[in-house]
Amino acid sequence: MPNTSKATRYVAIETRRLILRTPTLSDAPAYAALFSNPLNYEHEPHKPSNPSVEHYERVLSSFIEGTHKRKSAVLTICLKDGEEIIGTGGFNSIFTRKPGNVRIGDAGFMIDSAHWRKGYAKEAVAAMLDWAFIPSSLARRGQPAIDVVVFESLAANDRIKGLLSGCFGFQATLRDGGFGAEQVWEITRADWLKRSTMMGLPDGDIPFPASLRPDPQAAGT
Ligand SMILES: CC(C)(COP(=O)(O)OP(=O)(O)OC[C@H]1O[C@@H](n2cnc3c(N)ncnc32)[C@H](O)[C@@H]1OP(=O)(O)O)[C@@H](O)C(=O)NCCC(=O)NCCS
User: Which of these CATH numbers, 1.10.1040.10, 3.40.50.720, 3.40.1110.10, 3.40.630.30, describes 3-219?
Assistant: First the structure.
């Protein structure tokens, strides 16, 4: 159940098996371990040079501050059962693009390789998109009411491609980047409503108004 505290803008999104929540400084050892596993960042152009607990305490402070200022919403991903930290994800930055005042969320996800192919990223991404795309008229305190969620990765990253294109059916575009070919997904609220309706995924804590949902048959075309 989404819950955002007024004082800290602490976000907690609950799914069937997971909790996605604003990091705390005590998560630093788990982040240091996540970023010490080369499989987890195999396709990242920038490799972590100093995955120490002290480094991630500083990084997590900036994530907490970013959430407080509503400029980002990075979330620690924990198993509900036992509270083990298994990954991180969410929005590295949230900003308004002009013209049109379009709210953009620049997204990323990482699940530790020990937990790959158990459906955790699918569950976490679906919950995060539900949370992010709630329109501003329904958004609770702290919900960013994003219009377009952007994922970018090197084109060589077939894992994120498998998740976003293979599993969710979102279309990527290819472009040249500073580190080689890149794939980019720009997912709109309408895209998400269409895909989640077609996949029969349940709404998050706040249901989308029926007027926003496409007809299930039309969504399937
Ligand atoms: C991409 C990543 C988040 C996927 O996490 P995951 O928890 O293993 O994914 P899920 O188990 O939820 O997969 C759901 C579906 O996505 C697709 N998928 C996931 N990983 C895939 C892979 N390696 N190859 C092809 N398809 C894949 C499959 O359709 C899968 O369903 P299936 O297992 O029933 O076939 C994970 O591999 C990861 O953290 N990689 C390193 C970090 C990274 O590259 N992040 C992306 C940067 S934006």
Answer: 3.40.630.30
Model pLDDT for residues 186-219, shown as the tens digit of each residue = 999 999 999 999 999 988 888 998 999 998 777 7
Report residues whose beta carbon is within 6 angstroms of any ligand 1 atom: 40, 43, 108-111, 116-122, 151, 153, 157-160, 162-163, 166-167
Q: Do residues 73 and 23 make contact, with C-beta atoms less than 8 angstroms apart? A: no
Q: Which residues contact 131 (CB under 8 A, 6 or more apart)?
A: 2, 11, 13, 143, 204
Question: From the alpha carbon of 167, which atom of ligand 1 is closest?
Answer: 29
pLDDT digits (tens, 9 = 90+) for 7-35: 456 899 999 999 999 999 999 999 999 99
Which ligand 1 atom is nearest residue 166's CA? 29
Q: What's phi and psi for 181, nearest 5 deg?
A: -65, 140
Contacts of 22 (CB under 8 A, 6+ apart): 8, 9, 10, 11, 12, 63, 64, 67, 73, 74, 75, 76
